[in-house]
Amino acid sequence: MSDVEQLLRSLLDTIATEHDYKDCETKLHSFSTGGANYTSQLHYITVSAPEKDDLKLFAKSAIVNENMRAQVPFDIFENEMFFYSELLKQFQEMEIQHNVPKEHRLATAKFYGCNREYLKEILVLEDLSSQGFDTHDRLKSFDWNYASKAVTELSKLHALSIAYSKDYPEKFDALCTRFKSRIDVDNLKGFVQSMIDKVMAVLKEENKAKIETFLQKVQNDDFHKFVMPLRRPIIAHGDFRPSNLMHRTREYGQLEVVILDYQTLQISNPIIDLMYFIFSGSDEEFRAKHYRQLLDHYYLELCNALSRLDVDADEVYPKEDFEYELEKIQPYGLFMSLMLLPMVTVEAENAPKMDGVSDFRDFAIKPNELAATRLNGVIDDFVRLGVL
C-alpha cells in the first residue's frame, strides 16, 4: 500500500468516525478520466456500516511533482482545500443572511475532509456520480440548455465574490493577496512556443499570417492584462470548462449543473471564465447561434444573483463596464484556444500523464483532426469579431 493510499484510508477512517459509521467496511476504486484531469489521482469510495446507508465519496490525491509545481502559477491543491473548508462556508452563510432561496444558491459538492501534507494532498467530497451526475463529453460541443445553465452557476460564483467584497472588504483584500495571479510568462515560454509550432501546422493557410500577427502583438503587450481585474475585481474560477462541471437532468426535465475543481481561483475579471468556457467547449456552429446570447444571458443572471444578495448591479458592475471588459479581454479567448484546445480534444490514449511529466512542454500536444477543426473555427470567429 502506497503512502498516499495509507493517508487516504486514515482520512476515510476519520470521516467514518465523524459520521458514526461503526464497524465499517471501506471500498476504494481508483480511476482515470483520460485527458479530462491532469493534476490528481481520482478515487470512488464506498463506506458501509450496519444499519447505515452507504456513504458514497469521491477523493482526489495529488500527483503533481515538485518540478511541475514550480512551473504552475497557482497553489492548486491549497486553493481548492481553502475553498471547500473556509471560503465556501462564508459564501453559504451570506446566502442564508441575505435570504437567497435554496434553488438560487450556488450548487456545490459536500466537503468531507482533506489532508494538507505537501505532495500528498487529498480532498474528499461527496460522490456526485452516485446521484446521477456526469461530465459533458469534452469531444462534443455543448448545447444552449447546458451552456446557459453552466453560466448561470458561474454568475452565482462571481456574484458571491462581489457581494463578499461589499460585505467584508478587509477579508476580500486578503483574498486579493491570496489569489493574486502569479502567471510567469517567461517560465512558460518553452510550452507556448512548442504549442504555437504545433498549432500553426494545422491552420488554414489564410489564417496563419493573422495568427502570427496576433501572437506578436500578445508578446509585445503585457499578457497579464488579460487576467487582471479591470472595472470589477472578482474571484474567477480560472479553469471553467465542461470537464470541471457535472450535470444531471431531474425527473421533471430540469438540468442541474455543479461547478468543481476550484484549484485555479484567482482575482481577475468575469470575462476570462466566459471566454475559457465558450471557446474550450463549443464549436463554430454553436457560437454562430448563441455567442452573444450567452454573454447577455450571463450578465442578466449576474444581475439577478447580485440582487438576491442585496447588491445593485448598476452600482457595482453596470452593463457598460461589462461591455468594456468584454472588448478588452475577448482576445484572451483566442489565445487560450491556441494553447488549450489540443489538450481538451486529445484522445484518452494520447493524453499525457502528470505523474510521468517533468516539464510543462510535455503538454504541448499535437492537434488532432477535431482540434484542427475547432481551432480554425475559433479563428474565423475572431475575424468576424474584428479581433483579427
UniProtKB/TrEMBL annotation:
Residues 123-308 form the CHK kinase-like domain. It comes from the Eukaryota. It holds the Pfam family EcKL. InterPro entries: CHK_kinase-like (IPR015897), EcKL (IPR004119), Kinase-like_dom_sf (IPR011009). SMART domains: CHK. This is CHK kinase-like domain-containing protein. It comes from Parnassius mnemosyne.
